[in-house]
Amino acid sequence: MKKTATKSRGKAKLQPVAIHTPDGRFIAWYSNTGLTRLIFPGQGALSARPPKDNTVPGEWVGRTKEAVRTALLGETPRTLPPLDLSTVGTDFQKRVWQALRSLRCGQTTTYGEMAAALGSPQATRAVGIACGANPIPLLIPCHRVVTSDTGLGGYSMGPAWKKKLLERERAACKPKPKMKPRRR
DNA sequence: AATGACAGTCCCA
DNA sequence: TGGGACTGTCATT
I need a labelling partner for A152 at 20 to 30 A (CA). Which of A50, A58, A168, A178 fits? Predict the structure, then answer.
């Protein structure tokens, strides 16, 4: 298979649910198999106020709320809702997203390292594009991938968000219980 | 079918 | 410091 595993015009109708946080109202979109997309506060039409009635399993919503709120504190969510990445993304992009999920709180990597880890050391740019195509930022932690020079890089929700999330994780998580801190 | 643009990075002058 | 090649993907031409 090549790309978007078919649009399967079988209108897999997605349902929006509001996730209220101290940072604003996020919108979680669900298919019948899981969370497909997470919209940040104020991100256009998709962030319109969702209806109160929906058929999304309460456990999914509960887990999503817990995960989003925890991640916004810079901490690690205990559990995630089921994720449905079947309707978007190429094979390469899915591999990138899967690799992202192994990054732990407070841990960063670079686009180049990601590319190398996926066996295409030259495809650093493509990794950046794949990160930008991540439909579930925050929970799939694309903000932990930074550039090799400035240490930040772009972010689909704006670099300010990326910076904020990294700072919170730096404060809330111990990045390296490795050795005693060296001079700096 | 070719081109341009995109959340990068390395190399060479 | 600056330009080019490289990679994956997609909208446009």
Answer: A178
DSSP 3-state of A68: helix
Query: Which are the catalytic amino acids of A?
Result: 142
Which chain A residues 41-80 have CB under 7 A to strand C?
none
Q: Which run of H or of E encompasses A16?
A: strand A15-21
pLDDT of residue A8: 42
Tell me the mean pLDDT in the region A24-29.
96
Sheet order of strands, A35-39 included? A15-21, A24-30, A35-39
Predicted confidence at residue A175, as pLDDT, reads 56
Task: Answer yes or no: are the C-beta atoms of A140 and A94 closer than 8 Å.
Answer: no
Tell me phi and psi for residue A154, to 5 degrees.
-80, 175
- What DSSP line would sit under A84-98, residue for residue? --TTS--HHHHHHHH
pLDDT in tens, A150-169: 999 999 999 999 999 999 99
Q: What is the DSSP letter of A142?
A: G
pLDDT band at A44 (very low <50, low <70, confident <90, very high): confident
DSSP A59: H
Closest CA to A164 of A21, A20, A19: A21
